[in-house]
């Protein structure tokens, strides 16, 4: 199981793409609605090629090494989900645990989403080709702000992780390769993403700190 992905809704889709391109991410997909129809605007097309067109981008997907970032058109910045790569055995165990927790599961051919009590979702992805083969830009930790209306340790139960540290203000869950720190806050947001040996120290246009 690998933590590999995060998704935001935002009105800054162009700024997001340019920002991540500067960090070495490659745009692999652009899908948006134009004149009432969903269309693709994938590379080698650039923003100059559809300049002046009113495109509502449903998703822009970018990849660098072992990290996949997506974002789509929204009225405001809103954190939507994180993603983990799983094999078939892990998939069945996690879906079964979600049923035990009474968390809604939306299974699809390409990916499955599990709704959490904190209004963000967890994507289960079984297709390894959604990330590049190069062993770099590996996510080692995320920090997520959530209200503690439900205990964040439930994520450890869902994903069969360990509770590595716990205090009143934060809970850390994970394994030997990656972890998630949940900070107690009123609003839900992805606060930070930490990579292994990538040398980045930036804040993206929706306010996520990258280290």
From TrEMBL:
Organism classification: Bacteria, Bacillati, Bacillota, Bacilli, Bacillales
Protein name (Swiss-Prot/TrEMBL): VOC domain-containing protein
Lineage top rank: taxon: Bacteria
